Amino acid sequence: MIPFSVLDLSPICEGGSPAQSFRNTLDLAQHAERWGFNRYWLAEHHNMPGIASAATTVVIGHVAAGTTTLRIGSGGIMLPNHAPLVIAEQFGTLAAIYGDRFDIGLGRAPGTDMGTARALRRGMSGADTFPQDVVELQGLLDDPAEGQTVHAIPGEGSKIPIWILGSSLYGAQLAAHLGLPYAFASHFAPAALDQAVHAYRSMFKPSKACPAPYFMLALNCFAAGTDADGEVLKSSMMQSFANLRTGRPAPLPAPDPGIRDRLPGDVLAGVDHALSCSVVGSEASVAEGLHRFIETYAPDEIILNGQIFDHAARLKSFEIASGVLRGMGSRTAAE
C-alpha cells in the first residue's frame, strides 16, 4: 500500500478564529492517526488571514502532544526566513520531548508577500543561500564533526529527516543533487510537475540520508457523498485562490455553489489550472482520480490537502480518501 499523508494549513474560516483552527487541526490529526495516515505536515505562511500555522513549529508541537504514532513535520518551513541553527534547535527540542517522529520539509520561498518577507528577514542580505543553508542544517542535526564550534543543543545527533519541497525544477534538481527526499507542490502549482519528476529521478545521487529517490506528490481532495457535494466543498478553496490572486486574501469562505458563474473568466481559468491536481466527488470518483494520479506518476507517497470550510465535512473527506487508499493497497496485495 502506498503511504498517504495530510498537508494542513490550519485554515481560519470566515467567522472563525485561530484558536478554533488549532482545535480543528488537532482533531483532524487524531482522526488521521486512526485512519492510517503516515505523516501530518503543517505549512509556514505569514500575513495570511486564512492560515493559522505561521508559527509552524509551535503548531507541530501542539499536534505531537495529542498524537502518538503519526510522523509530524513541516510542509514546509520557509528556510530563508530562519537561521538554520534556530530550526535545528526547534526541531531538536521537539524530538527530545516527543521522540523520533519528525520531518523537516524545507521551502525556498518566503511564504508571504515581499513586504512581510522584509519584516521577517530584518538584517539579512538578499542573496539566495538556500542550498548552503540546507547543508548547514544537515550538519547541525548530524553527529558533531571534529573541530566544530557551533552546536545545536538540542538537535545535534538527532538526524531528523530533511525534505526539499518545490514547485519548479530548482527544488527537484537540488533534492537530487543532495540526495534528499522530494515533495512537489502540485496541489497549487502543477505546471512543472512532469519535468520535476523526471529531473529528480534521473539526476538523483544516493546519499546516507536517502539511498534511493523518494518522491511525494501533493494533491487536493474534496470527497463527499456525491460528485455535486464534492464540487461544493471545493468552492471554498476556489474562492480563496481567487481572492489571493486578485490581491484580496481573506479567511476561508463558506461554500458557494455558483462560484463558477461569478468569477471573471481569466480568474476562473487561473484557479482551475492551479487546482487541476485535485480529486473531487463521490468515493468512486475519488478512487478513479487517485488511481489515475498514482498510475501516471508512480509516487512513493501521496500527501492530501483539503481546505474545506465545514470541519465535519473535512473530516469526512479525509476519511473517504483513507478508505479508498487502503482499499487500493488491499487490491494490489491480492493481485
How does the overall form come out from the CA principal axes?
Answer: globular
Strand order of the largest sheet: 1-2-3-4-5-6-7-9
Order of helices and strands: EHEHEHEHHEHEHEHHHEHEH
Count of individual helical segments: 12
Mean pLDDT: 94
- Rounded to the nearest angstrom, the radius of gyration is 19 Å
Structure classification: alpha/beta
How many beta strands in the DSSP annotation? Answer: 9
Low-pLDDT stretches are none
Distance between the termini: 12 Å
Helix content: 40-55%
Largest sheet composition = 8 strands, parallel, barrel
Please indicate the percent range of residues in DSSP E strands (runs of 2 or more). 5-15%
Structural features, described:
The protein is an alpha/beta fold. It contains twelve helices and nine strands. An eight-stranded parallel beta barrel has the order 1-2-3-4-5-6-7-9, surrounded by eight helices. Helix 6 (169-178) packs parallel to helix 7. The mean pLDDT is 94.
Task: Give the topology, please.
Elements: E1 4-8, H1 18-35, E2 39-42, H2 56-65, E3 71-78, H3 84-98, E4 102-107, H4 114-120, H5 130-141, E5 162-166, H6 169-178, E6 182-184, H7 193-203, E7 215-223, H8 227-245, H9 259-262, H10 265-274, E8 278-281, H11 283-297, E9 301-305, H12 311-334
Parallel strand pairs: 1-2, 1-9, 2-3, 3-4, 4-5, 5-6, 6-7, 7-8, 7-9
Helix pairs in contact: 1-12, 2-3, 3-5, 6-7, 8-10, 11-12
Short synopsis of the structure:
The protein has twelve helices and nine strands.
